[in-house]
Amino acid sequence: MSDRSPAFYLAVLVGGLVFGFGLAYSHMARPEVVLNFLQFEDFGLLFVMGGASVVTAITFAFATNVLDHAPLTGADYVRRMKSFDRNVLAGGVIFGVGWGLSGICPGAAYASVGIGNFTILWAIGGMFAGAYLQGLVRSRTTDSDAGPTTAD
Q1: Residues near 23 by Cβ (< 8 Å), separated by ≥ 6?
Q2: Helix 31-38 and helix 44-66: axis angle, to 10°?
Q3: Which residues neighbour 98 within 8 Å (Cβ) at sequence distance 6 or greater?
Q4: 98, 103, 105, 144: which one has the fewest Cβ atoms less than 10 Å from its Cβ?
Q5: In this structure, are residues 102 and 109 in contact, taking their beta carbons and an 8 Å threshold?
Q6: DSSP per residue over 70-114, as a string?
Q7: HSE on the CB side for 16, CA within 13 Å?
Q8: Which of 18, 45, 20 is nearest to 32 (CA)?
Q9: What is the pLDDT along the chain (152 residues), one digit of tens a residue?
Q10: Measuring CA to CA, which residue among 100, 117, 111, 126 is closest to residue 28?
């Protein structure tokens, strides 16, 4: 059982509601709008992502300078850097192909269900299947990399 307070889950729910409403309100939960962006025909998505990035940057700059820990989890604010390696590059390419084929990114896909686009559930199912498959591959690769240990 999790030791997180109900306030944590309520904040996550409210954040998700605001995120989903914002995507739907800005029409970014419509695959045709996203595809028009990817085809350089409509740059509205750029402004939505830019606005979100500015709000996030200001929030994190303020929070990390004023607070000594995260308000909901109590964990320390630490910078988590991922090294740029072949897994990041390959994952980005695969993610991009999936985004292009489905016409929508994962966050917007969930919001798209909220506006009645139920066929996107196929893409969401594919995301879950792909993530599960990647987990299986990674666990088998990690197990085989460890190799057998022998006693001296």
Answers
A1: 29, 48, 107, 108, 111
A2: 90
A3: 123, 126, 127, 130
A4: 144
A5: yes
A6: -TTT-PBP--------HHHHHHHHHHHHHHHHHTS-HHHHHHHHH
A7: 11
A8: 45
A9: 467 778 888 988 998 899 889 888 888 888 888 788 878 998 888 888 898 899 888 888 888 788 777 766 777 776 677 788 888 899 889 988 888 888 788 888 888 888 898 998 998 999 999 999 999 998 988 776 655 555 54
A10: 111
First-to-last alpha carbon distance for the chain, in angstroms, is 40
- Give the span between the Cα atoms of 33 and 43, in whole angstroms: 9
- In the numeric block, which tokens belong to residue 65? 């300078």
